[in-house]
Design a protein that fits this description.
single chain; alpha/beta; Rossmann fold; Phenylalanyl-tRNA Synthetase, Chain B, domain 1; 2 domains; 3-stranded antiparallel sheet; 14 helices; globular; binds zinc ion
Length: 364
């Protein structure tokens, strides 16, 4: 394997010397350093969230590839990192990279599910190719009582409604392709995590959820307790959507109240997917580390109205036959009419608002 040396965060790394990340025998994508920077910020908050000093926190990078996450977590945060990968070339490279940085981390070559079943962790990072679903049950078992979990999903096409039946098989929830598909997709992912953890009397409490490029990333706190679990399962509910006129609302409606057409509906987690006070703390940490681009994303998310889903103004224009409006003007108009309204990181032309569809159309 031909290698080249790169610098990411505070670690030096040997990575495959290839044009495209997927060509490497061990996967490394420099573009994802953005997400890893955010992860480093999140890990810096863990000592407060979990009430444990860094050197007492055990962190698993379950699908570690080059070891980049585990090494950065050790060097930049000071936690006890454990890097695991089933690929022997990967394991050799992780060890080489640890030596290169003079860092001691635990390295294993094992199926991630086995590592998760056999050990307990404070923080688990599941960053797979495709869907994280094959690891969720074992991950739920890998926390003693409390912990923190971050998950990446790159299978956004099923989650966002391009393949509704794949979503139904994989996540137990049928997706549909609406104008708010990114948020519906991330909520289907979160729903599956919550339902899987519920089986083990654990609850996954989302702290930060975002969609970027072609993947979703979700961070959440893990707690134990039947009451907490039941409370979270009550936050599930229906969203119904009319593909004829564009009407949508929370709740189950089989026919559209605006035009009478048959609707599509699905049952997902409708509770908070962001924890604003967590994001406030994260912004401080990202600022201290000088991660300006990452801060911008978190800033937008922190300011988003806390209501499920959003209206894409392009979609509303298409459905109503009206001209496209400037997003800032539209937000201003909604606010003048007494509604909350903000932009959303999920879609640059969309607005998050507590206004109902009929109000949105009228104001539009
Ligand atoms: Zn309709």
């Amino acid at each position: 394997m031909r290698l080249k040396e790169v610098l990411e965060g505070k670690v030096r790394l040997k990575v495959p010397d290839v044009e495209k990340p997927e060509e490497g025998e061990v996967f490394y994508n420099p573009v994802m350093s953005y997400d890893r920077n955010i992860s480093v910020g999140v890990l810096k908050l863990l000592k407060n969230v979990l009430n444990k000093p860094e050197d007492k926190l055990t962190v698993l990078d379950a699908l570690s590839a080059t070891g980049v996450r585990a090494l950065r977590y050790k060097k930049e945060v000071g936690v006890n990192s454990w890097a695991n990968d089933v690929n022997p070339k990967s394991v050799d490279l992780i060890k080489e990279n640890a030596a290169l940085n003079k860092i001691k981390i635990k390295v294993t070559r094992e199926d991630a599910n086995i590592i998760l079943r056999k050990n307990k962790f404070d923080y688990v990072d599941i960053d797979p190719f495709g869907s994280p679903v094959p690891f969720l049950d074992s991950t739920a078992k890998s926390f003693l009582r409390e912990g923190f979990l971050s998950i990446t999903a790159t299978d956004t096409a099923p989650l966002c409604g391009t393949y509704p039946k794949v979503s139904l098989r994989r996540y137990g929830i049928e997706s549909f392709k609406s104008d708010y598909y990114n948020e519906l997709g991330i909520r289907i992912l979160i729903s599956e995590v919550i339902k899987t953890f519920a089986k083990y009397e654990k609850v996954f409490i989302p702290q930060l959820s975002y969609s970027r490029r072609h993947y979703f990333r979700v961070y959440g706190k893990v707690e134990t307790g039947v009451k907490k679990v039941n409370n979270f399962l009550e936050k599930f509910g229906f969203v119904s959507h009319c593909f004829n006129c564009g009407w949508r609302d929370l709740g189950l409606k089989e026919t559209c109240p605006m035009c009478g057409a048959k609707t599509k509906f699905t049952n997902v987690y409708l509770g908070d997917i962001q924890n604003k006070s967590f994001l406030k703390d994260l912004l401080i940490v990202l600022d201290e580390m000088g991660f300006e681009k990452e801060k911008k994303l978190i800033e937008i998310i922190k300011n988003e109205a806390s209501v499920p889903f959003y209206f894409d103004t392009h979609y509303i224009a298409e459905k109503t036959g009206k001209a496209i409006r400037k997003i800032d003007d539209f937000i201003k108009k909604l606010k003048e009419n007494g509604f909350s309204a903000t932009k959303t990181h999920f879609c640059p032309t969309a607005v998050k608002t507590d206004a109902k569809f009929s109000d949105v159309v009228e104001i539009f």
